[in-house]
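Subgroup meeting minutes
Present: P.N., E.W., G.H.
Scribe: E.W.

1. P.N. recapped why we're keeping a running log of single-chain structure predictions: easier to compare across weeks, and new members can see raw inputs and outputs side by side.
2. G.H. added today's entry (144 aa).
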Amino acid sequence: MIEFTCPHCGNVMRVEDHYAGRSGKCQQCGSSVSVPMGHSMNDSAFGSPPVGPYAHPQSMPRSGSNKPVLCLVFSILGLTCCFPFSIVAVILGHGAMRETMKGESDYTMALIGTIIGYVSIGIIVLGFVVWAFMILLSFALTAV
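Output recorded in log:
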């Protein structure tokens, strides 16, 4: 765990190690704060993070999940060819957004995939409504 204070209000926060170098909002004042590249409470002197140009958080590999990517892929598949993929995309998107922090590229990817999934579901529902209306209209016209 990394423990640090908000520079705006002094609130002491504790976050897990995988949030090191990322940005988020303070739970108390809502200001944007950056999580320092701190050491875990279990780190020894030999386990310190690398120093130099390769220590920048964006250049370090992330330990995130593949849910945002899968959400985007499934939403596009659901929009283009197979409707059930849209439902899977929406479910994966909500799970991915819950796991990531706002402002990260993974969150944005999950949000876009979720929106495309909802749009696809809306198009399919609208298509079924139009189809049902056409069937009812054809019955009404043949009865006359």
